[in-house]
Amino acid sequence: MPSFTSSPAWRALLDHRDALGAQRTDDFWRADPERGAELTFGCAGVGVDLSKQRVTRETVQLLVALARERGLPQAIERLFTGERVNTSENRPALHTALRGDEHVAVDGVDVLPEVQRHRERMRVFAHAVREGQWKGATGKRFTHVLAIGIGGSALGPKLAIEALASSADGPVVRFVTNIDPAQFDDASRGLDPAATLVVVASKTFTTQETMDNAATARAWLTAALGPEAPARHVIAATANHEAAVDWGLPDCNIFPFEEWVGGRYSIWSSVGLPVAIAVGMPVFEHMLAGAHAVDLEFRSKALEHNVPALLGLVGIWNRDALGMASHAVLSYAARLESLPAYLQQLEMESNGKRVTLDGTPVDFETCPVIWGGTETPGQHAFHQWLHQGTDRASCDFIVVARPMGRERAHHEALLANACAQSQALMTGVATAESWRECPGDRVSTTFVLPELDAFHLGSLLAIYEHKVFVQASVWGINAFDQWGVELGKKIAGQVLPALRGKAAELHPATAHLLSVIRRIGDTG
Ligand code: F6P
Hints:
alpha/beta, 20 helices, globular, five-stranded parallel β-sheet, 13 strands
């Protein structure tokens, strides 16, 4: 497929951009006071206000024309019907099947019965742990979970448990993601092994950090409770059943998911077990329901009103027509502190690509840098850069309409700040003193969740997942592989023996760095 940059629809968009000239987003507001209503959309209960983007209604029409020309509706169908959209790994990407009830066939086999069976096992197990029916080796009920995993095997569960803190009435979950031994020490400090369940989440069950931490957890349990304890205290969420068995887990401790679930799309699978244990399976299933509601809309709604499609397209407009290399996610919810990190993996690991599906180097820019923070603390840290820095970032404001805590007045102040920041970024301010001047015309989208509950969290995450897919479809890249991470893993495998005193052939730069580390470690 030729690059999207050579398509007539993209050329029309560039002409349109040039015709907009020096007009600013607040000029659009002056010319079209109705643009707020026209550019605000809804998806599964989440409101999405695009009116502070540098787009007019015509821009949206032209972007939709681009999506049609690039075959987006057909790509959406290919995604949902289990086609092998992950071409480099020759797999479907069927995370949508984990939260729906539609029949989908992979290699002629309907996946729904298996998905339902896996979910039922999760339900039974989460319930048994929460009710104290599945106990530890000494008969104690589990008060804590050590959740071991990294990347997609940790970011989603961590985000969900934090976001749903008001429903977290089960065992307390602590995460161990880092190979840095300090993290295991910190996470396990004060825990009673006899009352701790270890959940090892790893799609491959080979990831170095996770497997090393799992081995440390096993040793920690065994030292305290004896060699039989891991069979009561360790469970796995994985697509590699065989490796979990080889590791020593009995079948009933292994909660499988399918190869066609990408790591960063796996929160909906058994990787979500720590969430189900913390908040209960019914709450976890509300999250699935929110995501499924988005799937239904994404698959059926006309592109003109289709929120994930519009978000993806506006992102392409910002990146490739307006040249923005950076995108900030601003969570106006303390409990969504981990959202920027979650989206960083979702967007950057999916669309941080430089060749198209057929291997041709792209002649355009793909995923921007995704970063962000929790607000309002970010306002007192990096917003200065957003308002007056020399680079321009697009922003997503994530706002929750109903209070998340008891003090209503605080919530009102939180909302006032969210509204104020997006307005200030757009309008800026002109003054005689140049250091006070804010140029404005800095674009943002505001997402409004009615409340921070499981349903709307599920909706929000699925909206972003599909946004990523829309961008990949228009760009013609594969959102579902991540070959770029392999080289570093391979080199780490070569460096580790050297660190352990074995002969290893190292690049001179690495040999030099190791000698610096050793010298400073010895003498510093
Ligand atoms: O190295 C990248 C990656 O493969 C991510 O895509 C994935 O989420 C993470 O590592 C963890 O992988 P696993 O779940 O197989 O341990």
